């Protein structure tokens, strides 16, 4: 039935390649990253606990983002008692989402593991002393 109602046709200026890539990613048509050299989620979590890692991933709007991030205890800010959203609670939000400390943004950020396209350890990344003492 084609009555010309809402959603009847594609939006003007739609990026077909981006639509196709995201559709495949969302519905699991793409492989899990094993052939691309992406570590498993557990391996990535271990890397984040030891080092600063640049994670490249697709944002929900389809844009690519490169984010230096870590879970290294010496680089994380102290959790204040009055802070209702502790790191433990952030991690419990979803098992598909990885919450990390982003030194460049000086705050916690998150990304979905299934949208990761590249992982690279950043050797010798210099974190300013002010960011370490938060």
What are the SSEs and their pairings?
Layout: H1 16-26, H2 41-50, E1 53-58, E2 64-69, H3 87-92, E3 97-102, E4 107-112, E5 116-121, H4 129-132
Antiparallel strand pairs: 1-2, 1-5, 3-4
Shape: elongated
Sheet/helix structural class: alpha+beta
The sequence of SSEs as H and E is: HHEEHEEEH
Number of extended strands: 5
Overall pLDDT, averaged? 76
Strand order of the largest sheet: 2-1-5
Main sheet characteristics: 3 strands, antiparallel
Kindly report how far apart the N and C termini lie.
Answer: 59 Å
Fraction of residues in β-strands? 15-25%
Instruction: Give the quaternary arrangement of the chains.
Output: single chain
Low-pLDDT stretches: 128-134
Instruction: Give me the number of helical elements.
Output: 4
Please tell me how large the radius of gyration is: 18 Å
**Helix amount, in percent?**
10-25%
How many domains make up the coordinates?
Answer: 1
Architecture overview:
The strands form 2 sheets. This protein has a 3-stranded antiparallel beta sheet, with helices on one face. The chain has a two-stranded antiparallel sheet with strand order 3-4. The chain contains 4 helices and 5 strands, in the order ααββαβββα. The chain has one domain (33-132). With 134 residues, the protein is of the alpha+beta class. β1 (53-58) and β2 (64-69) form a beta hairpin. The termini are far apart. Residues 128-134 have low confidence and may be disordered. Helices cover 23% and strands 22% of the residues. The radius of gyration is 18 Å and the shape is elongated.
Key terms:
4 helices, 22% strand, disordered C terminus, 134 residues, 3-stranded antiparallel sheet, two-stranded antiparallel ribbon
């Amino acid at each position: 039935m084609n009555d010309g109602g809402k959603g009847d046709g594609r939006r003007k200026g739609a990026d077909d390649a981006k639509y196709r890539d995201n559709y495949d990613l969302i519905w699991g048509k793409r492989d899990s990253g094993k052939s691309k050299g992406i570590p498993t989620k557990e391996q990535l979590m271990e890397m984040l606990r030891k080092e600063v890692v640049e994670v490249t991933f697709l944002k929900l709007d389809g844009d690519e983002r490169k984010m230096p991030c870590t879970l290294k205890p010496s680089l994380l800010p102290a959790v204040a008692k009055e802070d209702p959203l502790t790191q433990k609670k952030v991690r419990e939000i979803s098992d598909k989402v990885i919450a990390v400390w982003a030194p460049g943004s000086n705050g916690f950020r998150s990304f979905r593991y299934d949208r990761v396209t590249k992982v690279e350890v950043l050797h010798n990344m210099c974190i300013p002393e002010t960011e370490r003492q938060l």
